[in-house]
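**Polypeptide and fold**
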Amino acid sequence: MKVAVVGVTGLVGTVMCRVLEERNFPVSEFLPVASARSVGKQVTFKGKDYTIISMEEAVASQPDVAIFSAGGGTALEWAPKFAAAGTTVIDNSSAWRMDPDKKLVVPEVNAEILTKSDKIIANPNCSTIQMVVALAPLHKAYKIKRLVISTYQSFTGTGVKAVKQYQLEKKGFQPSQDEMAYYYPIFENCLPQCDVFLENDYTKEEMKLVNETRKILGDPGIRITATAVRVPVHGGHSETVNIEFEKPFDLGEARQLLTDSAGIVVMDDPANHKYPMPLYSKDKDEVFVGRIRRDESTDNGLNLWVVADNLRKGAATNAIQIAEYLLAHNLVGKKEQVA
């Protein structure tokens, strides 16, 4: 497979390369792509040095797959150009997620909706990905009526600038205004704002959890409210998820459904202090679920604690799992020359 990684120098782009290596994705030709200021620089993939190329050169090379992690504006401009050249684009930005003509995919949940004609495929938001992996088997069994979500999201989800801000603050330095990814310090602090505020006083991140979850689960009727918080944590995002089902459920059966589901590791032994933590999820591809308990304040209520590495399953790994599914089902590859 001829594979382009667009945004190869970014935080997620770097992890995408690592995951491609670790999962031994069959890359016959590797095309590292980045913005104009990075063109000509070197990156290493599978022990070999490669020169970063421009968007124009990458499109002309007609890769089989282009995995994007370069921001929404770049995705809107360039994904259609790659698609027109016959390339299948898997985009990690929010640009295409809610487009009714584009598939929003978490392989463990809804990969079967993909077809060979899908040339731009959206990778969901990091917080949404890990949550729907846990929700999908429960929704199928008991039908979710309402979700109340609180997230505790690693600053790494904001990107390189946030990591640098945290590192400076941790060392006791005050970053300049230009060095600040956030309006306030992140070291030893929690910020009840992920992304910008919208007219309804929710943030974009919170509304992504609402809208993307409904689309992936194929149920626009689920009632959802969310609060997203940025925390000074490496390694992953954590979420409390309070679920109200339409149907009664057996707690043991619900736990077994999670245990038996692909991509989930149940860590739920409170007597022995065993529960998921971002410290444990770092550099892993699974979604970890624990603190599984009945919500005793309502009928058919369940509480979950869901943790995953936001740079891996929440971004890079999910995108590459999509590519693996496309390859395994002959949905990508031999493409027609586009005039």
